[in-house]
Each structure stands twice: as structure tokens, then as C-alpha cells.
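Reviewer 2 asked us to include a model.

Predict the structure of this chain.
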Amino acid sequence: MSETQQAPTTAWGSIDTADGPMSVYRARPTGTPTAALIVLQEAFGVNEHIQAVTRRIAEHGYLACAPDLFHRTGTGALRYDQHAEAMPLIGAIGPEPITVDVRAVVEDLATRDGIAADRVAVVGFCFGGRAAFTAATTIPGLAGTVVFYGPGIVSGPHAVLDRAEHLDAPVLLHVGSEDPTIPADHIAALDTALAQVTVSTEQHVYPGAGHAFACDARPTMFDADAAALAWDRTFAFLAEQLPTVR
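Predicted model (C-alpha cells):
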């Protein structure tokens, strides 16, 4: 954020979904935003890190919204040492509830903020990466999707790689070469599937980086160089697919 740029305005709100009300953390830049990013949480909820990511995105001129995908259970945010508690929560969230929740945010952005779906992109981290890819295959008309180390896309109970043919907007993926949740054969399977789609796709593999390499709230996993490069690529991708000034 430049010295002259004001910090984004932040607030929690609630929107209605087909499965009940859902809390959403919103970060609004100065001025009138013309584009929006939906930020999908890690396995630990809309915690301080995801809120910081949402603010960071807003500093680039986007209206950024992080919906609470745990709203059906009322769990809220978990600590990073609560991995065992997080796993069954994300395991219960398949393509249908993800689609319900992301579509609700897309519709709210249109009615509340006048930002249509083709001016909205989705970015997700960890579980949210899988959720972002899922939304890209089930919700038409979005501007693009960014996936940070999303396990479960290729295999698992909610795998959605077989839906890649439904992608209708560009996709950017980031994965660490040493991520045990996304092994080399999964990376190769993604490359193969994405080579068959008609939209632009990029998958970047970061040598030596592991899972959650862009999460500075987890020092043992954070890789500053890989994170900086991934974010540079992300904002370049967004500037091309979703410029903040039309």
C-alpha cells in the first residue's frame, strides 16, 4: 500500500444462502470498486490470516469478500494446531455447498455493490483452493480463478478434476514441489486435464516449497521467496483478467 493510499474499510456482514445465513468478512478499498475477489478460506476458517489476505487484496483496488464456509456448523475460526478438528469439517463440504455459498456471494455483490459476475474472480487457499476450483467448474461467467495449493482436486471424496471441461474462465494454480498433499502425480494429472480445456490455464510449481508456503502466519511452512513470486503472478493475472478500472 502506498503512502497516499488509505487502508481498506473492513466489516463483518451476513448474507442469505439456501442453507441459512453466512457471515462474510469484507474489505472495501477507497473509491468505488468495479471488481471483486471472493477469498476462500483454509481449513481453519476465516481467521486472522485470511482476513489479512482479504485486506491485502483490497489494497489493490478490489472489493474483497471472505465468506465463512463453516457457517452450517457454526464453527468459526480454528487454531493452526487444531488440524484434527478441521479435517472432518472440510471433509463434509463437497461441491454442492461450495457452489451454494460462492453463488450467494456472487449474487450479493451484484445486488449490493453493482458488481456483475464477469467482474468477480475467486481465490482460495488449501481447502479453499479446492473450493475455488470447484466453483470455477460449477458457476459460469466468473472472470477467473486462482488456486493456492489446493489438495483434493485430483482425488478424494470431493475430487472435481473430471469437471475441468466446464471451466469457462482462466485459471492460475500455485503448488509447492514438496507439498505432500499434492504429490507429483496429482500435479501431472492437473497439467494433463488443463491442457484439454479451451480457456487459458497456468500451473506454477515452486521448487522446494511445501504446503501453505504463502501463509506467513505459519513460520515453519512459509517460504518468503515462493510466496512473493506467487503473489506477483497472482496480481499480474488479476490485472489482465480483472482490471480494477474498465
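The longest strand covers residues 9-17. Strands lie at 9-17, 20-28, 36-40, 63-67, 120-125, 144-148, 171-176, 201-206. We have added this to the supplementary material.
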